[in-house]
UniProtKB/TrEMBL annotation:
Pfam families xrefs: NadA (PF02445)
Catalysed reactions, as listed in the record: iminosuccinate + dihydroxyacetone phosphate = quinolinate + phosphate + 2 H2O + H(+)
Known role: Catalyzes the condensation of iminoaspartate with dihydroxyacetone phosphate to form quinolinate.
GO molecular function, one term: transferase activity
Binding site for [4Fe-4S] cluster: 87, 173, 267
Family statement: Belongs to the quinolinate synthase family. Type 2 subfamily.
Name listed for the protein in its UniProt record: Quinolinate synthase
UniProt keyword Transferase present: yes
Cofactor binding annotation: Binds 1 [4Fe-4S] cluster per subunit.
Subcellular location, principal: cytoplasm
Species annotation: Erythrobacter fulvus
Amino acid sequence: VPTGADLLAEIDRLRKERNAVILAHYYQTADIQDIADFVGDSLELSRKAAATDADVIAFCGVKFMADTAKILSPDKIVILPDMDAGCSLEDSCPPEKFRAFREAHPDHIALTYINCSTEVKALSDVIVTSSSAETILAQIPPEQKIIFGPDRHLGGYLSRKFNREMLLWPGVCIVHEAFSETELLKLKEQYPNAPIAAHPECPPTIIDHADYVGSTSGILKFAQEFEGDTLIVATEPHIIHQMEKALPEKNFIGAPGADGNCSCNICPYMALNTMEKLYVALRDLEPRIEIEEGIRLKAKRSLDRMLEMAG
Ligand code: 13P
Ligand code: SF4
């Protein structure tokens, strides 16, 4: 595997040779974000994957995101640099348990966060991302009963905001769960004028202090617009790379975990993808996402509904 400038050049050469598009999430390391053709949130990446005319999608994100790309673009080769790049929310929701939960509540529809397996998508009615959840929930008649999974913090946030009861699956994101309210308040004392932007996967102890709550793309938009010189960012800290690029004169601080710094809020799954593994994946067209057609079609129904309803 080449190193340094050669590695960048080789990834670029392979991307052209393979007619590949490199899609990256904001939680990937700066080098991956910088070499990607497109960097986005879960909804934007799904839309890009559905619309691309490339032959290969090199997905730099976690597995449920690459699975989503394959569900929406089955004729493309979809590669993920590290197949072990999972997600604690997906792990919290085994399909057979989710099926039993649904069967126990037959009068409820399943509104499901995209951070789940293909099997769970196939068992769901409508998928949401953090950037589309509010728009989609607003279109569901108030009398309709809802199961929301797998993220109980996003579900709880929506439930409070819409004043609408939902049955919540008990999953959490281990990254957003690790923010410390005590340490956040200490930081806020140091920077009393700095607003806090938080992802809705954060627990209510963090959300309650936030000036803005939204998806990664929403937080980035807020970073472009806030007045002042310092912003506290309560989501995975690799997103700060985009903020520093766009607004080098401002100060962006990752919200702290219990140890007082933001390093424990690095997503360990996202971190499995590296430039070296991206190179190998483009070279070998492996590891490759494969999904059985029957399950793909069922999962596509709930994803298509999301794409329609998200507007
Ligand atoms: P976004 O859709 O806001 O990018 O969130 C994805 C994610 O996994 C957050 O942890
Ligand atoms: Fe999953 Fe959390 Fe990592 Fe997002 S940050 S991919 S929700 S574990």
